[in-house]
Amino acid sequence: MRLSELKPSTRFRKKSKRVGRGQGSGHGKTACRGHKGQRARAGRSISPGFEGGQMPLKRRLPKRGFTNIFRKKYAEINVRDLSRFEEGAVVDEKALVRSGLIKSVYDGVKVLGDGEIQRTLTLKVHKSTKTAREKIEAAGGKVEVV
């Protein structure tokens, strides 16, 4: 038996409602859509925020702030995550992606200072916090800004 061969028991399989198949079915004629109106018509589509012509909530509420389209997004890693690299290793963005610490580089890599490190590493990153730099240099490593 394989996972792909598993099927639910017949007593747990609910039959779909067959609408528009005659009056005797109880779901005939209007096919559970009611009489007339927008929802009874074919090809109906009402957007999720539509309130019947009333001014929608998303337009009634005041707008605040703005989105900075020039914002840079950095892939962040902590000092404690660097312990998986070998002593004396050069850690750059490719090594971080290969190790699975980050999924994508985005606009760069930033090292944060959470945790401790005992290994001597050379980091080639775009940014680092002051505490992260101090901890890495205290362990004998160095941080190079790319």
What would you note in describing this structure?
- The chain is built from 3 helices and 6 strands; from the N terminus they run αββαβββαβ.
- It is of the alpha/beta class and 146 residues long.
- It has a domain of 71 residues: Ribosomal Protein L15, Chain: K, domain 2.
- The chain has a 3-stranded parallel β-sheet with strand order 1-3-5. Strands 2-4-6 form a 3-stranded parallel β-sheet.
- The radius of gyration is 30 Å and the shape is elongated.
Number of strands: 6
Arithmetic mean of pLDDT:
92
Mind describing the biggest β-sheet?
3 strands, parallel
Q: Into which percent range does the helicity of residues fall?
A: 10-25%
CATH class term of the domain at 75-145: Alpha Beta
Per CATH, the architecture of the domain at 75-145 is Ribosomal Protein L15, Chain: K, domain 2
Beta-strand percentage range = 5-15%
Give the uncertain stretches in residue-range form. none
Rough outline: elongated
Distance from first to last alpha carbon: 54 Å
